[in-house]
Structure formats: structure tokens, C-alpha cells
Amino acid sequence: MEDFVSLEDWSKGDLEALLDLAQAMKEVVRRPIKKVPTLRGKAVANVFFEASTRTRNSFELAGKYLGADVINFQGSGSSVEKGETIWDTASTLEAMHIDAVVVRHGSSGVPQQMAHRLTVPVINAGDGTHAHPTQGLLDLMTVRERFGAINGLRVAIVGDVLHSRVARSDIEGFVKLGAEVRLIGPPVLMPEGLTGPKVHIYQELDQGLAGANVVQVLRIQRERQQSGQIPSLTEYHDRWGITRLRLAHAEPDVLVLHPGPQNRGVEIDSDIIDGHSAILQQVENGVAVRMAVLYRLIGAEGVSA
Ligand code: CP
């Protein structure tokens, strides 16, 4: 059984095949009648120990569009509140003959440990600051749709890199597919150990944006920050916020992404979100990508037309 815990485990060819599959799934998502019987008889458990709007709902729809039965488990309201461990919770769900577990947790490493303990495939829906591989994949898909290919592009990732699992999965995916990645943000929010031949750090926003084809704007993760890491949200916006003026340094056809949820007027201005971003395309692609991953891990041969 394969798991989908990190893009690190998947080759360039694997990722390209998943993107091709996601593109075919997008055609299914756009049909008036979306349901196909590909995963009929399969059961998927969405196990979320952290808040989510996009990931949880798109995994639920992805499973349902493919004909699977989907259950949604949240820590609150469950026996976790009575002291049950997450491992006993996962084993309990597995005993109900589910075919895959999708897990989000605030601690890095939980999906990996769950994958060691369970016999069914485990899909990481975001763990701590470690990885968010389906977000990485949907970002790759959105960029590939715009530019046709990823090789040779300059991708700027701006903001709170320190706390961002999205940044880590994006770096992994974009570098694997041949892009140059620029990490831009305050030194206090820039972790060590991410740089490499294709990954460089910039401490000036305009310099990092110069000639960028893609700008991925990261959410300021106030819930994970220690106090004092940024002076104030206004100052953060003034120095690092993505505005029309700052974007003028990038390529004229720059593609602006944000994984969501957005802090409007902090890391990105509303007019960029509403008039000059691919954020809702990312959301749409999230459903297609999650269908592709579910199909790849628990599907049979061939997507029914
Ligand atoms: N991008 C992302 O993971 O969003 P949610 O937290 O809403 O799932």
C-alpha cells in the first residue's frame, strides 16, 4: 500500500502523472453530473484534528465525486475528548474497514506515524510545519495550466516561510519539476536548511520579486507565532505585503497564488486577491488533485467516462 505523506517520496515522473490525472479529473468536476463510479464500494475517512475549509471539503467532495463513501471525523466531539489517543482512534476507524485515511494534525510527523501503524493508505492533509503535499500538487497544477510547463520558471514564495508546510511542499514540487524558487520574507520568519542550488533566500521584497513568473503569498500564521516575531500587522504589510505597486517588479504576466485562508490587507491586498490572483482556480484544482490522489492510492484501472 502506498501513502501520500510528502512530495519527497514521489518522483518527477510520478508528480507529472498525478498532474495529468488531476487534469482529467477536472473535466469530471466540471460536468453537470459529477459522480463517477470509480471508487464505488470504497470508504474514505477524513480525520481532521485542525481547522480546515478547503482541504477537508475538497477531500470530501473528491471522494464523493468518485463514488466513495466518506466519513468526516473531527477531534472535537469525538472520543479523543475522553482521552482516546489518535492512534487508537485511527485503529478504530480501520477496524470499520475504511480504505484510506486522510489526516490533518497540528504536529509534524503524525501522518507518517499513522502510515506506519495502519495497513490502509494514509494521505497527509497538512501536518504541523512539515508538509501539505496535496496543496503543493494543486499549486503545481495551477502553474502548469497557466504556463504549460514548470521547468525554468522563477517562483517567489513570500512571507511566513518558518511556519509554512505549504512552502515546504511547494519547494519540493517546484524544484523537482525544474523551477527556481525564491524565498522572501523577514529573517525571523525564515528557517535554516531550506536553501539549495535551486532555492535562494531574499531579504528584500522588490529584489526577490524582480522577474518572478509566479508569486505564492503565504498566510501570516498568527496561531503558530511566538509574540514579537513581527512588530505589527501594519508594519508587516508595509514591508512584505503584496500590493499592485510591489507586483510591478515581477513579470507582467505574473501568476499570483495564495493557499488560503487569506489575511486581506496584511500579506496581500484585496484588489490583488479579487482582481489579479488565481486563488479560486487553486481551490477548484484542489478537488481535482485530491480525486487524482485518491484514485492513485485506492482506485482500480481506468476512470469511467
Ligand atoms: N490551504 C489550506 O490548507 O486551507 P484550509 O486550511 O482551509 O484547508
Descriptive notes:
Helix 1 crosses helix 11. The mean pLDDT is 95. It is globular, with a radius of gyration of 19 Å. The strands form two sheets. It has a five-stranded parallel sheet. With 305 residues, the protein is of the alpha/beta class. 46% of the residues are buried. It starts with 11 loop residues before the first helix and ends in a 7-residue tail after the last helix. Helix 4 links the parallel strand 3 and strand 4. Helices cover 39% and strands 15% of the residues. It folds into two domains: 142 residues, Rossmann fold, CATH 3.40.50; 150 residues, Aspartate/ornithine carbamoyltransferase (Rossmann fold, 3-Layer(aba) Sandwich), CATH 3.40.50.1370.
| Largest sheet descriptor | 5 strands, parallel
Helix content: 25-40%
Task: Indicate the radius of gyration in whole angstroms.
Answer: 19 Å
| CATH class type of the largest domain | Alpha Beta
